[in-house]
Amino acid sequence: MPRIGAEPERRKALIHAAIDVIGEHGSLDVPVKAIAEQAGMSSALAFHYFGGKDEIIVETMRYLLRELSGSMIAELQLAKTPVERIDGVIRASFTPGQFDRKTIAAWLVFYLKAYSSPPAARLLTIYFRRLESNLIDAFRQLLPAAPDDVSKRQAVELAEGLGALIDGLYIRQALGTREPDGQKAIDLCRRQVDAGLARIGVESGLAAKIEASSLQPSRQGSSAAGGVH
Amino acid sequence: MPRIGAEPERRKALIHAAIDVIGEHGSLDVPVKAIAEQAGMSSALAFHYFGGKDEIIVETMRYLLRELSGSMIAELQLAKTPVERIDGVIRASFTPGQFDRKTIAAWLVFYLKAYSSPPAARLLTIYFRRLESNLIDAFRQLLPAAPDDVSKRQAVELAEGLGALIDGLYIRQALGTREPDGQKAIDLCRRQVDAGLARIGVESGLAAKIEASSLQPSRQGSSAAGGVH
Amino acid sequence: MPRIGAEPERRKALIHAAIDVIGEHGSLDVPVKAIAEQAGMSSALAFHYFGGKDEIIVETMRYLLRELSGSMIAELQLAKTPVERIDGVIRASFTPGQFDRKTIAAWLVFYLKAYSSPPAARLLTIYFRRLESNLIDAFRQLLPAAPDDVSKRQAVELAEGLGALIDGLYIRQALGTREPDGQKAIDLCRRQVDAGLARIGVESGLAAKIEASSLQPSRQGSSAAGGVH
Amino acid sequence: MPRIGAEPERRKALIHAAIDVIGEHGSLDVPVKAIAEQAGMSSALAFHYFGGKDEIIVETMRYLLRELSGSMIAELQLAKTPVERIDGVIRASFTPGQFDRKTIAAWLVFYLKAYSSPPAARLLTIYFRRLESNLIDAFRQLLPAAPDDVSKRQAVELAEGLGALIDGLYIRQALGTREPDGQKAIDLCRRQVDAGLARIGVESGLAAKIEASSLQPSRQGSSAAGGVH
DNA sequence: AATGAATGAGCCTTCATTCAT
DNA sequence: AATGAATGAAGGCTCATTCAT
Predict the structure, then answer these.
(1) B185 versus B115: which is more confidently predicted?
(2) pLDDT tens-digit readout, D23-40
(3) Which CATH architecture has domain A1-51?
(4) What is the CA B49 to C1' E10 distance in angstroms?
(5) What is the predicted pLDDT for the residue at C21?
(6) How close, in Å, is residue C44 to chain D by CA atoms?
(7) pLDDT (tens digit, 9 = 90+) per residue, C122-170?
(8) Is the domain covering B79-228 a CATH 1.10.357.10 domain?
(9) Which residues of chain C neighbour D196 with C-beta distances below 8 Å?
(10) What is the b/e burial string over B199-209, where b = at least 16 CB atoms within 10 angstroms of the residue's CB?
(11) Which residues of C are less than 8 Å from D171 in CB distance?
(12) D78-228: what CATH class?
């Protein structure tokens, strides 16, 4: 059974197992043994590779952030206009791979971890700061001419609103037992952005995308992203 | 030391201590001893009054729901128009007493608890269902004439958007170390509702409230309510 | 509810409750609170009257010994012949009041307690020594003339055999769920004594009593003792 | 320190330690820690191997039953006549390995456990039923021709008498502090069986064995078996 | 007389972690 | 590389006992 040179796979397996088990249980209060078993190895080996439970958790967190960053970057690179960049952030947030029950629960768990763990807070802060500055920047380009501090404030408000909405859509999944519906979440975000921009006289054109997506079956993973591009 | 008739105070003290300690720690994985100490008693007494850790937690959850329900009901009773009802829900959500770091963290912890605990999920679901039906109802009265299913759908979308935004604003507090700013959150919600309604041709008049509140120092507890009424 | 001057009744109630609860549970590992509740009072009061759990237990033990001694003495006073004295011991051992499931279990529990508690051992030893000397004496009077040490040895053997048999019949009740049958136990003992004496050429006449008792319904408490006298 | 393949020895050590500690203390109310220490390991390891205190206790009980069964079967296989089978049961019951203070106390503790624990009761019942049917069968073969139900009843009575006597001899050990004398117990049983059989006209020949054993020093383990074979 | 209030001590159990193999 | 063996520390919970009322 012991394959040699398997360290990277072992680590990856453990991280995925950690997401599963933590997500399933809705807390970090999970035996390392449970994670190791889910990954098909002994807990001693998990310690061998990571050094401790904290490290497993931090690495898992890093992994989730990296994954989400990856989706985000990919979307942003394809985007040509500010609206497309905003829409990219929205779509990346609800990519099927990240928007399933267990992963969402793991996210929330890490969010909470940040309450009592400064390092965890730092990791999340860095990530969200980058995300937010991206959004602020995009919104700003869309706003009509105005004194700098005014348009800055408006852009921040819009970005904060969108960011909070995304987070809220994540947490809301905690209450349902069914698998979350990414497409519905995307549309909701688009609608809010569209409304927010319209309020200050900017036509986003996102309404068209919503309608396009509604014509498709709202099944995850297939149509959603595809139908949009 | 043993006073008589102490049970109610002791229970209340333990519940408040539980919110504190759980909120501080960002998880339910907290020694009962820590809660009891925070409440100024031995852990044995906590067990005496509650029977077990689970009961402490469930009662604490119930307490938070009751408190929030209370604020909500109070606001709704004062509201005369649909817009005021929506605004009441918003204001109640960010009432100073509930929107402080520890209470917020406790809320999120319970949200997560619902992931693995059906009873917890049930409690939350009941509460949120009631909240949402209130919002849906209010939005519906604001919508222009339209076939029933269309206006129903629109109202649901608006209610979901607002609900998610509120939750998102809660969770976002996890990242900052400063005390959350309820007024800012209220304004953000109002702005979104205003924009969302405007989008479908309804003028909410919430903008006026935002401006009114902005003129006041955004101190919690003083201006907020005052500026609104 | 608090009647005054009730100390003796309270103590008696606690002792009976202790027999019940200890017998029911088959061990001394029983909360004082359970005993007190069974006796209809708070555990604090039990401590007030007895000073501690150990005292409750010792007093309960003493009570059982006293009860059994009482039956024994009553039987022995009625006995005119050595055989009747032996038979009295047998009958007293299986008097309905002492030979019910809970009391038996309590007895065994105390027997075991003697393993680790010298005071308990002392109490039991005193009692059994007296019982045994009574039996030895009776047997000795029945034995035919023989050198002192021979007849002494034989009497001791017979007494030990009967004593062990009685104890064995007690413990055997532990396995059945039905209420123990005192009459059957009495007959078994009589039969053994009769056989043991016959072996050394003494006719006890106990066989007649066995037959007499067999003609009666072997119901506890009614016929058994009555039919014999 | 961790040797590999240690599980069987550890389990065995724990079971023996359990007999010791439970026997010493005369109750099941014994810290697992005490058992584990007696077995030379931490309590955590005891839990690791047995899963819980209950399992330790049940396994210990099973072990005692197995041991006693073993002695019994060995004796019965050597026996050629009914009298030898009866004597085998007697001798097996007082085999030195089983008839020492601690083991006896452990036995009684389990007897009591059966009072409140149906599974424990089941284990004991199965064992004793088998033992008794063996005795009944042997006695029956010794009885003179008689109507079936009469000889059946007589055999049952003799078997019950012997069974109860054995149990009684066990429990009587609780009162003395010295090590129990197996040979004396064996002789007492033999004498009773001999007398009981003689009563109904059957000569057992056990008297000869008693005398043979009396000539030997009544040391445990030496004479007993020797004088018999 | 009687009880609820209150706690320290102890037990069962789990778990992160280390180590020898 | 991989694991079973092993344990210290900690947490939930119970209970005997004391005390103020």
Answers:
(1) B185
(2) 999 999 999 999 999 999
(3) Orthogonal Bundle (1.10)
(4) 21
(5) 97
(6) 24
(7) 999 999 899 999 999 999 999 987 788 888 999 999 999 999 999 999 8
(8) yes
(9) 191-192, 195
(10) beebebebeeb
(11) 108, 111, 167-168, 170-171
(12) mainly alpha
* Interchain contact D29–C (C-beta under 8 A): yes
Give residue D223's pLDDT band: very low, low, confident or very high (50, 70, 90). very low
Query: In this structure, are residues B61 and B111 in contact, taking their beta carbons and an 8 Å threshold?
Result: no
Q: Which residue has the tokens 């297939």?
A: A222
Q: What confidence score (pLDDT) does residue C228 get?
A: 30
| Alpha helices for chain B (secondary structure H) | 7-25, 32-38, 43-50, 53-78, 82-93, 101-116, 118-142, 148-172, 182-199, 206-215, 223-228
Q: A19 near A64, Cβ under 8 Å?
A: yes
Nearest of B158, B216, D177, D56 to residue C124 by alpha carbon: D177
Query: Using CA atoms, how far apart are residues C211 and A204, in angstroms rounded to an integer?
Result: 109
Q: Other CB atoms closer than 10 Å to residue B134's CB: what's the count? A: 18
Neighbouring chains of C at 3+ CB pairs within 8 Å? D
- What are the extents of the domains in chain B? 79-228
Q: For residue A169, how many other CB atoms are within 10 A of its CB?
A: 29
Please enumerate in sequence order all residues whose Cβ is within 8 A of that of B85, keeping only pairs 6 or more positions apart, or say none: B76, B79, B134, B138
List pLDDT tens digits, range A117-137: 888 989 999 998 999 999 999
As a CATH number, domain A64-228 is 1.10.357.10
CA dihedral sign of residues A50, A54, A58, A63? positive
Per-residue pLDDT at A220 exceeds 90: no
Which pLDDT belongs to residue A221? 42
- The listed CATH number (1.10.357.10, 2.60.40.3080, 1.20.1250.20, 3.40.50.1000) that belongs to domain C57-228: 1.10.357.10
Helix (H) or strand (E) holding A90: helix A82-93
- Which region, left, alpha or beta, applies to residue C201 given φ > 0 means left and ψ of -120 to 50 means alpha? left
pLDDT tens-digit readout, D165-206: 999 999 888 777 778 899 999 999 999 999 999 988 898 889
First to last CA, chain C: 45
Mean pLDDT of chain A: 88
DSSP 8-state secondary structure symbol assigned to residue A180 = P
The candidate with the shortest Cα–Cα distance to B225, out of B108, B74, B100, B105, is: B74
CB contact under 8 A, D109 and C113: no
CA distance, residue B85 to nearest chain A CA (Å)? 21
